[in-house]
Amino acid sequence: MDYEKIGLKVGLEIHQQLEGKKLFCDCPTLMREDEPDIKLKRYLRASAGEGGKVDIAAQLEQLKKQHFLYEAYSDTTCLVELDEEPPHKVNRDALITTIQFAKMLKCKIFNDIHFMRKTVVNGSNTSGFQRTSFVATNGDLDGISIEGVFLEEDAAKIIGKEQDYTVYRLDRLGIPLIEVATGPDIKTPEQAKEVAEKIGMIFRSTGKAKRGLGTIRQDLNISVTGGSRIEIKGAQDIKIVPLLIENEAKRQINLIRLEENLVGVKEADYEKSIIDVSEIFKNTECKFVNAGLKKKNSLTAIKIDKFKGILGMELTTGFRVGSELAGYAKTRGFGGIIHSDEDLKKYKFSEEEIKNVEKQLKLKDNDAWFMLLGDKEKAIALLKELIIPRINQFFKGVPEEVRDAQPDGTSVFIRPMPGAARMYPETDVPITHISDEEIKNIKLPELITDVSERYTKMGLGKDLANLISKSEKKDLFDQCVKEFNNIKPSFIAETLIPTLKELARKEKVDTDKITDENFKELFSLLDQGKVAKNSVNDILLDICKGEGINPEKYALISDEELEKELKTIVKENKGLPFNALIGKAMAKFKGKADGKKVMELLKRLSA
Known about the structure:
Number of helices: 20
Strand content: 15-25%
Distance between the termini: 70 Å
Mean pLDDT: 91
Largest sheet: 12 strands, mixed
Number of domains: 4
Structural class: alpha+beta
């Protein structure tokens, strides 16, 4: 696509979890997989904020009539997460890290940090709102404007989802989260990926960013000329960002084309055509429909005037108008929709069943229809509250909404775009004042890119320098390079990362058992010449097996004894090629002599 021609605009919202303690209590930021020992059930409701209005997105969530099950741990979660106790004082370390990050983006930092409540009634916050603060604004990153830097609490993690309820775990709720929002200055999908990578690098440079999948999330704000701002949430893998943008741009362009094609077609009173067609399919060969009807579910059908061929129209690769409506159905716990532009034979419906549906709906030649399998009352509510309004929106272009990123690079509807009624002041958290002097004295960490360049100048290869600069072992590496002058920095770096990975792969051992103190002890022995470099792997393996470091086991033999033994090897193997002599010597002195010294002595003795 010609992104300039279509007027593509992209803004990023990137969220990064921080290590340490939670934002409003002393609980650890530990994510767990073991069985929780606390379980409770809650209902949440949308209510008006100080402005007297109920947020549209919150209102729609309440219409789902869901309840929520929460799981927690008595030793790593507390009453704050359960919303049974007011928030404690804000985590000062998290706030300082946020200010560091903002300073690195050349932002103006506010002296007074006010926390606000952002209404969220989808169950992801036990309180029904998320606490968030506006820390800085007016920054710049290589010409991309930074509109805001925020400090907020992360939401609970979804564990499971059913039609009537959602299960959340509270170990993630309350983890400090830095959010950065760029302006809509990004013009291509690849540029968006590059900006996201740069922001991610700056986050990691603070030394406080959590690592691993799910600890950083990208939300994308996307629009094209004639379209609307769409927010796509939850892009965890940065590699999928360009595809999400490309697909959303295509989706909006095709929705604009659909609007143009519908000129002259009148909106209809679709509610009048809603009927129950369960009786038609009571003996169907379609297994999932049969199973659903036996569970007392219904098939609810609806006619869409003059929409034949439109439900099958592709909005982006593999994603059709029918997929769009199915996304709305899934927000209410339905599996999707079955529509007339599909190959209905794949469901094993008979021609008679299809004809009977068309007859009951009083279908005309250019009409379309679809049906929902599930609770009849909920299906009718879904059609009236969500799907029919969305069908009517096809006549008006692209609706502003929040969508969820899918693994294939498409997105599905989550909720309407929230409005101003969503936010109101947080009265439980006092204003935090940061003076200009305090802001000035907050030191900035070295950027990872600068660290990598510094390591390259030490003699590390570019790939190894990049690897160690991004690693949690960076500080240990710096300490060891400074302390052990007789060991090359490149050898220390190799030992800390590639050697460990290879050891774990080959020997199937847990290298996490090797502590920083173990490494320092090992490098100290190497630095003093008490053990050889070629014994490092064996020593590390001993530590993994719980044997610790035994210097005597790998002690080097004296130069006199080494020379004496090498003379014997040369004498007993006259005429043997030099490489073969080295092999014999290294086999005999493995871990007991330095390989370089063995080679030098052998050259002299065999000359």
